[in-house]
Design goal:
The complex is a heterodimer of chains A (about 750) and B (about 170). With about 750 residues, chain A is an alpha+beta fold. The longest helix of chain A is centred in the C-terminal third of the chain and has 28 residues, at about 505-535. Classes of the chains: A alpha+beta (about 750), B alpha+beta (about 170). Bound molecules: FE2/S2 (inorganic) cluster (FES) (2 copies).
Chain lengths: ~750, ~170
């Protein structure tokens, strides 16, 4: 970590997140009043009680928006502040400004809003019944599923539910804004995408994008929750600064954040699966009902990833999958690490679970038998290269001594009536690239200073995933200098424009590649200059660790001497790098193409122990074998696997997002929403990376790491299901995630009835 | 009301309102912003500080209650610019991702190691169970504590069996 001062500053408590920045004397704090009721109509807004609090209080409503009162990027269905109807419980209705945070919050509470409540729709299937979609539905297919089902030796079908998931980034949403020179704004936002915020503010304030400067410093976590959903808060702060002329800070308290912002999409899915007598899957069909929430947001892109991952890591020759994006009166569900893939994965794994029951076939063997292998073509027509699904799966079998482990678990279960163990293995095949093709680009600006120090700016936002550390390594390697010389700057619209959000695990792939392009350009200029100095061919010269080499011999020239000399000879030491991921294409009409740069493979075993009396579950161990390509930074990648797995396991077994029957958010703090604590994670966590082979189409042959390992958490679900089955002595089927202790007890009680989303309504 | 307290060795006297939390007081009145608010409800531990030798969630303590107290925050952890043993171990084991939990986490670890210089893994878990971390999955934090307490064998870089060798 040396050479990356940010990390050390963090350890000392010196990192300045937005809320830590020194406050200007005339700062106004902002606060919002949230809607009470899942759907309603504003009849009147009376600010008088708020204004009576203090002469400095200001109440800002939709009428104060100078530009367009709209922040929906794909579909214009998200007013910044609603003028008439609101669409979910917790939607911000008015903004209040005041000199202290407390006064602003008090003022927001005191604004009187007279309203009328309307009947909400909360269930995605009900919404589908009313044709309430955020986008038309979408189908991908291959082969002839109808014929395959008719000819199948075995078929199974079922319904799968998966719940929402709160991001719980530890730093809540927030932004700081200033109006400058009368006609432009400066904003610091806790966002994963500076351009998204810049574009929305320009729209809301009626400014050109060039008049909106947006900066993102290190975020206290994002996980997708700050991809599109940092935007309203940044826009509100900018609006406040615009109308008041004063600097404005808007920071949400936890309950406001959890009520007002979107989370992972809940899905409800019907599936059908068929297999031949040898246990080969011949057909699969699924109808996904995505609960998209109150607005379109990123729902179509998320559904796109669900469809692309419908077959998981399996070869399925006949397939038809349809995604419906259902508009409901819940917060607009949004990006969350995995971005629709985990939901798709859970369904296909449930389907394999179902068919293995029907056949009486060992689920591990069934999964293994159907894994993808080299040359297979996905249902969207992409031939797969360097497929490592079987290799990873077999390595997990080997590492865990699966046969012996299974026998051990069976023996344990036979002799322990009140305690049961269960284990499951889940494979992984995760496509990397934004599913929205034009987003697959990165930008960087690199300055080499005359003293040899290097400043790198890119579109990537640092939120703890250590993308700056990886980019620093890429820059050092590309220039041939020691890591200590590289400094990675915060993300700003001044240095890199037209960025894409740091998301889809691509932050390092695309921005690192752009930084490499810029660094190589500067390096080449420097080598050309060195060639004139040494009367040598530039092809013979190279830079390594800050030394100039000729062939393999060290010249006496250092990096610093070369840079100083080049600067004096008027060589440009700055470059802008741009990267657009090559080889991607997709035809939305035929649903065929090559939407991913490459796939990430892996497999994981999770073992749990169940206390049958109280439903308590202990995750005993996890063994993960993962494909990180040629890792740029193995420690960073290891930590990403651990963190993603923890979130996946939380999603599968613990984190239950609840809404009341009236759409009221019931999970609004850590006391009402359980997240993994230090006791939840397995005592034995063994992570191994597959050996480096091949050359994935990514920067320095590395592979994206942020999201793919989240999938392994799903193994926890099926491991627990096996333990429950051992307790019941049957093969009960229930695919209703998260499998929290209440549901476990329901299953153990033999009722077969599981409390799910629907019971809450 | 006027209170006087020590923070990281310095003495501060300030007027505070009765409802002001120690967290807000430290952050806004004294500028010790290394202590974070994660939940404001005593649930996450991001605001952990040591008060008179015991860890407290500073969002649940009134500034008034700290009158006369000796408070230690993350800013006091390094001395004269040198990272403490715990901070160095956190650095080595990459126990920091977004960093928002880190200040509070290190305060809890400091308290733990003060009470129990060689904690077992179970005792480490108990020591930090009030500190929520969304990013790391806790593994690296546990290893950092084992390392900081000299339980990872000879020198840095040693890790438990079956784990990737740390750089
Ligand atoms: S902010 Fe004090 S415990 Fe969360
Ligand atoms: S490092 Fe992000 S919450 Fe712990």
């Amino acid at each position: 970590m040396k050479g990356v001062p940010e990390a050390l500053r963090n350890l000392r408590g010196e990192t300045a997140y937005i809320d830590d920045l020194p406050e200007p004397r005339d700062l106004l704090h902002a606060a919002v009043q949230l809607s009470e009721g899942a759907r309603g109509k504003i009849l009147s807004i009376d600010p008088s009680r708020a204004l009576a609090l203090d002469p400095a209080v200001r109440v800002v409503t939709a009428h104060d928006v100078p530009g367009e009162n709209q922040i929906g990027s794909a579909v214009p269905d998200e007013p910044l502040l609603p003028e008439g109807e609101w669409e979910y419980w917790g939607q911000p209705l008015v903004l209040c400004l005041a000199p202290t945070r407390q006064l602003a919050r008090e003022a927001a509470r005191l604004v009187t809003i007279v309203s009328e409540t309307l009947r909400p729709v909360l269930d995605p299937r009900e919404a589908a019944g009313q044709d309430a979609f955020v986008m038309p539905s979408r189908t991908q297919s291959m082969g002839n599923p109808g014929a395959a089902f008719a000819a199948a030796a075995f078929t199974a079908e079922g319904r799968v539910e998966s719940g929402g998931q709160e991001h719980l980034y530890l730093e809540t949403q927030g932004a700081y804004a200033e109006r400058r020179d009368g006609d432009r704004v400066f904003v610091i936002s806790s966002t994963q995408g500076t351009t998204i915020v810049q574009r929305a503010i320009a729209r809301v304030l009626g400014l050109p994008q060039s008049g909106v400067e947006v900066e993102a410093r290190r975020l206290g976590g994002g996980f997708g929750g700050k991809e599109d959903q940092a935007t309203p808060w940044a826009c509100l702060a900018a609006l406040g600064a615009w109308v008041s002329g004063k600097p404005v800070k808007l920071y949400l308290d936890r309950a406001t954040d959890m009520r007002a912002t979107g989370k992972r999409h809940p899905y409800s899915t019907d599936f059908r699966i068929a297999a031949d007598k040898d246990g080969r899957i011949t057909a699969f069909e699924a109808d996904y009902y995505q609960n998209s929430g109150s607005s379109c947001d990123l729902s179509p892109a998320i559904m796109s990833r669900t469809l692309f991952h419908a077959a998981g890591a399996y070869r399925i020759p006949n397939l038809r999958v349809t995604g419906r994006m259902c508009r409901t009166n819940l917060p607009s569900f949004t990006a969350f690490r995995g971005f629709g893939a985990p939901q798709g994965y859970f369904v296909i794994e449930a389907a394999l679970d179902a068919i293995s029951n029907r056949m009486g076939f060992d689920p591990v063997e069934l999964r293994r038998r159907n894994l993808l292998s080299e040359g297979d073509v996905t249902h969207y027509g992409m031939p797969l290269k360097e497929v490592r699904a079987i290799e990873a799966f077999d390595r997990v079998l080997e590492k865990t001594g699966w046969k012996a482990l299974r026998a051990d678990i069976e023996a344990f279960n036979a002799s322990h009536p009140l305690e049961k163990r269960g284990a499951a293995i889940i494979p992984n095949c995760f496509g990397v690239s934004f599913t929205k093709l034009p987003m697959n680009r990165g930008g960087a600006l690199v300055h080499v200073h005359a003293d040899g120090s290097v400043l790198v700016s890119t579109g990537a936002v640092e939120m703890g995933q250590q993308v700056s550390r990886k980019i620093a390594r890429i820059a050092a390697k590309s220039l041939g200098v020691p890591l200590e010389l590289i400094r990675v700057e915060r993300t700003s619209s001044l240095t890199v424009a037209n960025t894409v959000p740091t998301a889809a695990s691509t932050g390092c792939d695309i921005n690192g590649a752009a930084a490499r392009v810029a660094c190589l350009e500067i390096r080449d200029r420097l080598l050309a200059h060195a060639a004139t100095l040494r009367a040598s061919g530039p092809g013979l010269l190279s830079l390594e660790e800050g030394r100039l080499l000729e062939g393999s011999a060290d010249t006496s020239m250092t990096w610093k001497q070369l840079v100083t000399s080049a600067d004096e000879s008027r060589v440009d030491l700055s470059a802008h790098g741009y990267w657009s991921t090559p080889g991607l294409f997709y035809d939305m009409k035929t649903e065929r193409g090559s939407p991913f740069a490459y796939h990430v493979y892996g497999a994981a075993l999770v073992e749990v122990r169940l206390d049958c009396l109280c439903g308590r579950v202990k995750v005993e161990r996890a063994t993960i074998v993962h494909d990180a390509g040629t890792s740029i930074d193995p420690v960073v990648d290891l930590c990403q696997v651990e963190g993603a797995f923890a979130q996946g396991l939380g999603w599968a077994l613990l984190e239950e997002l609840r809404f009341g029957a009236d759409g009221r958010p019931m999970s609004d703090n850590l006391s009402t929403y359980k997240v993994p604590d230090v006791h939840f994670l397995p005592a034995r966590l063994d992570i191994e990376f597959l050996s480096e082979t091949g050359s994935p189409a990514s920067v320095l042959n590395s592979k994206a790491i942020g999201e793919p390992p989240l999938i392994y958490g799903i193994a926890g679900y099926f491991a627990l299901l096996e333990a429950i089955r051992a307790a019941r002595g049957d093969r009960i089927e229930s695919w209703d995630l998260p499998l929290v202790p209440e549901k476990v007890l329901g299953l153990l009680a033999g009722t077969g009835r599981v409390l799910g989303q629907k019971d809450l309504q | 009301m006027r209170i006087t307290l020590k923070v990281n060795g310095g003495t501060y006297t300030r007027e505070v309102e009765g409802h002001r939390t120690l967290l807000r007081f430290l952050r806004e009145d004294l500028g010790f912003t290394g202590t974070k608010e994660g939940c404001g409800a005593g649930e996450c531990g991001a605001c952990t500080v040591i008060m008179d030798g015991k860890t407290v969630n500073s969002c649940m303590v009134l500034a008034l209650e700290a009158d006369g107290a000796n408070v230690e925050t993350i800013e006091g952890e390094a001395s004269a610019g040198k990272l403490s043993v715990i901070q160095e171990a956190f650095d080595r084991h990459h126990a920091v991702q977004c960093g928002y939990c880190t200040g509070g986490m290190i305060m809890s670890v400091r308290d733990l190691l003060h009470r129990n210089p060689k904690p077992s893994v179970e005792e480490i878990k108990e020591g930090i169970e009030g500190n929520f971390c969304r990013c790391t999955g806790y593994q690296q934090i546990i290893e950092a504590v084992l390392d900081a307490s000299g339980q990872l064998g000879e020198g840095p870089g040693q890790v438990r069996e079956g784990r990737l060798e740390h750089a």
